[in-house]
Amino acid sequence: MANATNPSSRPVIALAMGDPAGISPELTAMLLTLPEAKDAARIVTFGDRRILERGAIEAGVTLDLDVVASEAEIVPGARHVLVDLGHLSVEEVERGQATLPGGLFATRNFRSALEMAHRGEADAVCFTPFNKQAMRLAYPGYDDEIRFVVDVTGFRGKVREFNVLEKVWNARVTSHIPLKDVSAHLSVDAILAEVKLTNDCLKQSGIERPRIAINGLNPHAGDGGAFGTEEIEIIEPAVRAAKDLGYEVDGPFPADTVFLRALKEGWHAVLTMYHDQGQIAMKLMGFDKGVTMMGGLPFPLCTPAHGTAYDIAGKGVADIGATREAFRLAVRMANQQRARAVAAE
Asked: What pTM value is reported for the model?
């Protein structure tokens, strides 16, 4: 943790409140009242004071914030800051429902947090869970968070979603595409690009020598070609090429044992070939602690991997675990980034 007595030594985290109809207000309030959060970073939250205060009441916590009305008034210091955008009343929230007002609330908060980081005024961005249906109502082009980030910041580099647990990360070569299209999107170059990005992001999180296990595509990793040839024709050559480039990788391993092997043998990440191949394993291993991190951006971007939990919203039973872990990862990566910038001066 950074020096708690010197606020300027702590990174600035821009925090966007997520969907107001779910547990995001409660999670935001809980995070802002964690002693460790105050010691680790200066948090600037974007949202509405009324929504946040209701979340605090439901979570059973007491807020201690500086409240400002616009980005121009932000002065990160010893106390966390709430930018009260005043854009949603409690009466407008339909608890447990994906609505246009909820989507407008979340997209506005997210946009403001991203713009702050894009201007170089925040070291990292976090957000509490969004509801994609509500986000699409507010922003018709909203495919996922990556698309929105690219639209807001104009970033044109490679961005990829990682799922993170304390002991292992999950990277993937393909993401939100139909399963029938996965094989056509695999190539040696595509796998190498993901190995490089995964290696870079692991280093940014503080791991000096990342070790990456490469997943196969087919049952039993193809079983020598009996159940498919992608391993022989694409994945194995990619693994050899990655080793030649100096990356510490191995595989392809069968999907049904690769995560057990990664945990037992100390691999830092598993690179899977498609979305559910890794997501199912990660959520079984740590649904309440899983983090989603967008890698490749100029700044760290982290969020809990779970959703808005409409069914328990307002009941005071929301678990802070994954939100805390997302914040911790963002802080860790932000500190690494700040240290590299100082070393480069």
From this structure: 0.89
